[in-house]
Amino acid sequence: MKRSSKPPGRGARAAEAELEASFERARDSAAEERAFFERLMDAIVYVHAPVSDDARTPRLVQFRHPDGFDAIPFFTSLGKAQVAGSAAVKILGVSGRKLLAGTRGATLMLNPNDGGVVLYPEEIATWLDRGFLARVERLAPVEFAVRPAQSAPTWLAPAINRSLEHAHFVSSAYLLETHSSACAEQPPGLLIWLVVDLTFAERAARLVTTAIQPLCADLDVIIDLAVHDVSQPLPAGLDDAQISPIFTRIKPI
C-alpha cells in the first residue's frame, strides 16, 4: 500500500469518477454490478490506517456499523476518504484486488458516508475464488401459508446446511413450502426461514443466497428467504408437528 496525501492528478481523478459512476449504475442493475466489481479489482481505492502505525503490513481502521457489526471502510476516491478521516488516521491507496485478498475474512463497507454497500466475508471469498456475485432483492412482505416442503430439490437442504456450518449467528433454519390462500392458481414456492441474531440478519441472508444461487439456474420454482429474530418466539405457522428445522446449531456444553 502507498500513502496518499497529495491530490490525485487528472488521470487519477478521471479514474475515480469512472469508478464512482460505475458504482452508481450498479445500484439498479445486476449486469452493471458485475461490471463495477470487475473494474474495482484493478482500481485504486482508499483506506484508513492508524497514523502511528508503521508496521510492514498496515492495520486498517474499522468502525461499528449502525446494525452492530464491525466493518473496514474503504472509498472510491481520495476526497471521500479525506472527508471521513480524522487526525488519528492516515490514508492509504491500494488496488481493490489487494484489499479484498488481504482482508479476507473481514467485513468491508464501500463509501459508508454515502449509503454505500456492505461486503460480507462469504461474498468476498466467493468473488475472489469463483468470480460469482449473488443478486439479492428486498421484497415487501406478503402473507402466505406454509407447510413442509414436499418438492424441494434434493441438493437444496444440504447446500443450506453447508453454508451455515460456521455461521455462529444462525440458530436454526427451516425449508418450507408456501402457498397463497388468496390465489389458488399460484404455484407453490419455497421459503428458507433463518432464525438469527438480528445483528447479522443481512449477512445470514446473503450468506445462504451466495451459496445456493449458483445452483438455481435450471430451477423453475421461486425461493424466498426470511430471517427471524432468535430472541422472539417462532410464528404460529411453524408449530406444526410435521415441520422441523433442516439445520440446528448445537450449543457448546
TrEMBL record:
Pfam families found in the cross-reference section: SseB (PF07179)
Superkingdom of origin: Bacteria
Annotated SseB protein N-terminal domain residues: 20-125
Protein name as catalogued: Enhanced serine sensitivity protein SseB
Origin species: Stenotrophomonas acidaminiphila
